[in-house]
Amino acid sequence: MPRPVRCREIRSLPEFYSFAPEEGGSGETVTMTLDELETIRLLDCAGMTQEESSVMMNVSRTTVTAVYESARRKIADCLLNGKRLVISGGNWHVSGQNIPRALARKGERTMRIAVTHENGQVFQHFGHTAEFKIYDVEDGKIVKSEIIGTNGQGHGALAGFLKNACVDALICGGIGGGAKSALAEAGITLYGGVVSSADDAVAALLSGALNYNPDVVCSHHAHEHGDGHTCGTCGKNE
């Protein structure tokens, strides 16, 4: 039997998940795994050695070498042959995040729901949320809830944070395409476009009556909230 592949540690989920030529292109797609992307981040962006990178990823140096060479070949193929690059999959888990001990595990019968939170309401911009309200649900009833801070992380890190906190579902307002991809990679069900109090949103989800938009995508991240931009529906009141 082949040896099991050791899980590679990455520091956060990416902010961007696809790249393509602006003009022309071959129409073909190359998929780079998240652990391959991590070797590019560590070696080429952070300037680490392969030995240092192996420590960060909790694998051998030869594994880092092989993963890195595979990633570089894929990048070269896309650049030289006009192929689309998609980041997806791989054997990885997110490390290096401070998850409260109580959230690092949960019962087998527990459903854990996170809500972007501000002053009791569903916060309307996932990537800028300062805190989540986390609910543990058993047999359709809330048995515990608590508010945890995010320390100002970007959406890729937030998705990794939620994954490590064993979250099954996220309720939020506006959310960008990259964040949706990150949550999908983390295996977290998304209920976006929700405008209500956090408690009411969770109660509605549990009763099957939550009003949400499965196609919500907020693309106006550069706008300040004071300009009238409404992230929950991504409509501009300008």
Considering the chains and any ligands shown, give keywords for the structure.
alpha/beta; 238 residues; disordered C terminus; 3-stranded mixed beta sheet; globular; 6-stranded mixed beta sheet; single chain
**What characteristic shape results from the CA principal axes?**
globular
Biggest sheet statistics? 6 strands, mixed
Give the overall pLDDT as a whole number. Answer: 86
Order of helices and strands: EEEHHHEEEEEEHEHEHEE
Given as residue ranges, the uncertain stretches (5+ residues, pLDDT < 50) are 220-238
Give me the Rg, rounded.
19 Å
Strand content: 15-25%
Number of helices: 6
| Backbone structural class | alpha/beta
Please bin the fraction of helical residues: 25-40%
Please give a structural write-up.
The longest helix has 21 residues, at 61-81. Strands 6, 7, 8, 9, 10 and 11 form a 6-stranded mixed sheet that branches. β10, α5 and β11 form a beta-alpha-beta unit. The protein has 6 helices and 13 strands. By secondary structure, the chain is of the alpha/beta class.
Short description:
The protein has helices at residues 34-45, 50-57, 61-81, 155-164, 177-185, 198-207; strands at residues 8-10, 18-19, 29-32, 84-87, 92-94, 111-118, 121-122, 131-138, 141-149, 169-171, 189-191, 229-230, 235-236. By secondary structure, it is of the alpha/beta class.
Question: How is the topology of this model organized?
Answer:
Layout: E1 8-10, E2 18-19, E3 29-32, H1 34-45, H2 50-57, H3 61-81, E4 84-87, E5 92-94, E6 111-118, E7 121-122, E8 131-138, E9 141-149, H4 155-164, E10 169-171, H5 177-185, E11 189-191, H6 198-207, E12 229-230, E13 235-236
Parallel strand pairs: 1-5, 3-4, 6-10, 10-11
Antiparallel strand pairs: 2-4, 6-7, 6-8, 8-9, 12-13
Helix pairs in contact: 1-3, 2-3, 4-5
